[in-house]
Amino acid sequence: MASLATTPSTRVAVRRHLADALHLIGALLVTFGSVAGASYAARWLLRGTAQSITAPTHRTNLAPVAPPRTVPPDGGAVAVGIGATQSYRGLAVTVSDLRLLSMSSFVAAPAGQDFACVTVTLVNTDPALPATYNAADFYLADTAGALHHEVFAALAAPLGTGSVPPRGRVQGDLAFLVAVPNVPYAPDPQLRFFPTPAMPASLAWDLPLTPSFP
Description:
Elements: H1 8-32, H2 35-45, E1 85-88, E2 91-101, E3 103-104, E4 107-108, E5 113-124, E6 131-134, E7 138-141, E8 147-148, E9 161-164, E10 169-179, E11 190-193, E12 203-206
Antiparallel strand pairs: 1-2, 2-5, 3-4, 5-10, 6-9, 7-8, 7-11, 11-12
Helix pairs in contact: 1-2
């Protein structure tokens, strides 16, 4: 069986390596003035040596890209005509005054498109509690069922966001881009109102952009 005892020459070599290590640490402390600086310098000097510990991996948490929102397969609520009023949790919503504009104020619609502008009137029927609103809850549903947010059109009175006081009333405009020229007899796009993500069916209004008869 091999002996575990060290020889005099081995002990001398160990002492020499320890002394060299202590001299190196002392020199680093003098040079960098702190244990932290010495530690950093030692890591820099040893940067080319093999490491026995796997380097930590930097992870970036990115939210997944949400797919384009579409109208539910069942179509949600049946769309009503422009000028009709529908209610949701004490908020009466009226969509009216549809107009197609190639230019709104100083903003021109892109080539091949028009602004479809509507006026939205919100009435809070609750006698005590305010009701919040947000223009981002309104979408244009195209004929394929895809939903589109409003676009910037420099409207004189945009709906925006805010709160309707009890028994109060707020009115503002929305603008969406639609393709032109419109094809006769094509299905109408719709204005959809989704005030909450959990809403099973939206409120909907038909936007008659094409004539029903020649």
